[in-house]
Amino acid sequence: MLLCGGKLKLYVLCVKLCGNLKYSQSHLYSTVVPPDEITINYRHGLPLITLTLPSRKERCQFVVKPMLSTVGSFLRDLQNEDKGVKTAAILTTDGREIPATTLMEILLMNDFKLVINKITYDVQCPKKEKLSMEHATDMENVKSLVHRLFTALHLEEFQKKREHHLLEKIDHLRGQLQPLEQIKAGIEARSEAKTSGLLWAGLALLSVQGGALAWLTWWVYSWDIMEPVTYFITFANSMVFFAYFIVTRQDYTYSAVKSRQFLHFFHKKSKQQHFDVVQYNKLKEDLAKATESLKQVRHSLFANARRESQ
């Protein structure tokens, strides 16, 4: 909430602008002292931050909700109120930047620095009276209750926004996958054709080998001569199968050989056509996760609708 207008007269604790030379040198912030000042006081239990907007040169009051607002949301409100605020940051007194996810309640516990358009303001926070242990416990319970109520009241709205976001994400991922799916389908078709051709070639080779052994056994030589030959051929085949297991760490089965050869042709064709397999797999995983999340969100919305109807 913003209360903006002309000059406001507030009898509260305030600190005049002062520069931090160390921080200014490391982050290229100016040390020129402007005639403005930042004040913080509490009204109806809520912090009220009053400062002068750089473009409009008028005082503006920002009402902060400590348990809901964060440093990032406060800086966004400041930039939205005055488009002349190009850069804004909040630092600790020793010059370290405070994360945007920090709650304003935590920020207002200690003094801090507000940097607007490379000008540093030292801000002192009014000290609150320390509460007793009983009052502190009650306050924490109230905060927890308020947080649960806020979550319950805004859960459906959050889920609808989440559903809309997931739908947009799924559409975007499908748009990225569509051209990749077409390329992948072409590569798979050519790889499958080559694999099938290789299997048929293996069958033809075994047929030729069987026919040659039969011809040598019954027309050229006798079984007494060809028996040791067939034995050594069988033993050689066993050695080939064992070597395959040592190299691939897989049993020699026709389905395993076919799958391995298909992947070999697929990756070879992918490199030739510059098809990024890693990117494709990542997009497929992201799409699966987004689809599963959308399913869970819709299930939750459906359950809430049923409870309300009852």
From TrEMBL:
Keywords: Calcium, Calcium transport, Ion transport, Membrane, Mitochondrion, Mitochondrion inner membrane, Transmembrane, Transmembrane helix, Transport
Domain of life (superkingdom): Eukaryota
Keyword Membrane on entry: yes
Topology class, membrane: Multi-pass membrane protein
Location of the Calcium uniporter protein C-terminal domain: 81-283
Subcellular location: Membrane; Mitochondrion inner membrane
Pfam families hit by this protein: MCU
Keyword check for Ion transport: yes
Record-annotated membrane-spanning stretches: 198-217, 229-247
Main localization category: membrane
Similarity comment: Belongs to the MCU (TC 1.A.77) family.
Name of the protein described by the UniProt record: Calcium uniporter regulatory subunit MCUb
